[in-house]
Write a structure and sequence with these properties.
- The complex is a heterodimer of chains A (254) and B (229).
- With 254 residues, chain A is mainly α.
- Chain A has a two-stranded antiparallel ribbon with strand order 1-2.
- The radius of gyration of chain A is 23 Å and the shape is globular.
- Chain B has a single domain, classed as Orthogonal Bundle (Arp2/3 complex 21 kDa subunit ARPC3), CATH 1.10.1760.
- Chain B contains nine helices and no strands.
- In chain B, helix 1 crosses helix 5, helix 2 crosses helix 4 and helix 6 runs antiparallel to helix 7.
- Chain B starts with 11 loop residues before the first helix and ends with a helix.
Amino acid sequence: MHRLLDDYAHENGLRDVSPKLKLAIGAFSIIACIASPTPAVPLAVSTCLSAAVIALARIPWRMYIGLTAIPLSFALLSATVVALLSPGEPLMSIGALRLSHEGLWLGVLLVSRTIGGASSLFFIALTTPMSEIFAVLRSMGAPEALVELSMLIYRYIFVLLEEAMMVHSAQEMRMGYSSVRRSISSFAMLASVLFIRAWERGEKLMLAMDSRCYNGMMPLGECNALRTHHLVVSVIYILSITALLLVVIRGGSA
Amino acid sequence: MHIMEGFLPHPWWEIWFVVSLPFIAYGVSRIGRMARERRETLPLLAVAGAFIFVLSSLKLPSVTGSCSHPTGTGIGAILFGPWITSVLSTIVLLYQALFLAHGGLSTLGANVFSMGIAGPVVGYLVYRASQRFNLYLAVFLAAALADLATYIVTSLQLALAFPAADGGVLLSLKAFAAVFAITQVPLAGIEGVISALMFKYILQARSEVLLRLNVISKPDLVKLQEGAT
């Protein structure tokens, strides 16, 4: 039922690219999308990064398309509200609702920003395994307790997810989700069993880590080093998006 | 109920990061201190965080037919207190963005404030205030109101960023709240019922865990168990 994006990240085609470079590209793209006053930049970002994810990282495109539906459903709903509330010359009206030129433009801009932002987010999520993100966070000086806690949570997500799926299947086979009433009761039972098992796991985890001389800091592997051709491609991408952004901003103010 | 990547414009996404940061910094420093004092804290908090993530990644049985997820922050605040829950939710939100494509990185500050700070604080206060009257009712109210607080704060965040032409923030808030109410209000009710039931099952199976977390007092527990038999 569940395949987390992280699973794809472990076997993607861009695995050997330096995680710092990938995070930098993702962060730059996100900021470029938000800063852009027109849909041109987010759409360019989305095209470039989607191409990179599908062609270079070799992520199945059907999965990728399905993924974009999640943020898009939220964006369409909220952008409609924004569009209908915006000031400006009325373009058309349905009952009490008025749609203005500016509102329509703002709505389109917001949807395109969400698409661009989602592509940037998926680029990070699908090409960079979490363990490498931890290493980058630690080298950037994030609080030790936070990094350590995140790593332990990461580990236990998979353990608990498996338990939850097992309980869920068992409940489903016994008609646990056949009506709304039963579903609610079954779901509550699933959640409480999960909590109790999690608690027991936590107690065992402490013993296991103590017996392995855990000193509050888990060692992490070395990250991939920066390579010249990766850097060149990234710089070309960043420069062209920046150029487009500047053109768009100039064009808007002129 | 998360704001998606790219939706909040400048300067709002920065503002929500600045607003959330002190809460999270305080929570992190508290966790750091607890971890130094008692070694078992970190593993237990880790499974608690994983529990919140898994709970929020499961699909809830929904009345309206839409795909909806529990937030798990109300029950988290009852069990672990609002500060720790806010740090755990921050990590959970980051994972939701990276693993499930829910939420985003630039909107993380805003989402942390609505789901990780406002929700748990409301849930915790409601639980502590109404605990004396009826424990299950208190859990129901805490979880349901934590959900509602999250949804109202999210609507407010969107309304502040996109005020309406005539009517300003208030009209905009009403519009966003009305649109999201269709899914969020039934969801809050269901999460409240589930949390209360869940509490009941934990109380039956492992009541000592609740005592250790200081969620209920010993006399209350004895009274409840006597009432059940």
